[in-house]
Amino acid sequence: MGSPRGTSGGGGLWVGYPRQGSQRCAPLPGLCGALVPCILASRVSERFGQTCLLPCLPGALVALRTGIRERYRIEGSVCDDWLVMVCCLPCGLCQLSREQDARQ
């Protein structure tokens, strides 16, 4: 039976990324997140149905991660989202992008 935790199989912080299987270590989100996170953030925002300028607003990336987590019913909290997006933004953006890829 599937788990509502998301494709990573982890808990609130989506521990276990990258995903197992064909999308494991996909280079585009990882490279883009590490080298130019603003581009990946804009891409994730647009795919979520928001403007590409959303990442320019203070706190918007935490809200974006919370929205994606709630849309896909991934366990976690706003505190988890804040921790990931503040402490390791490139990793958080890669997780969001990969989650969107897996769901679309």
UniProtKB/TrEMBL annotation:
InterPro entries from the UniProt entry: PLAC_motif_containing
One Pfam family from the record: PLAC8
NCBIfam families linked to this entry: A_thal_Cys_rich
Similarity section: Belongs to the cornifelin family.
Name recorded for this polypeptide: LOW QUALITY PROTEIN: cornifelin homolog
High-level lineage: Eukaryota, Metazoa, Chordata, Craniata, Vertebrata
Encoding gene (name): LOC102373427
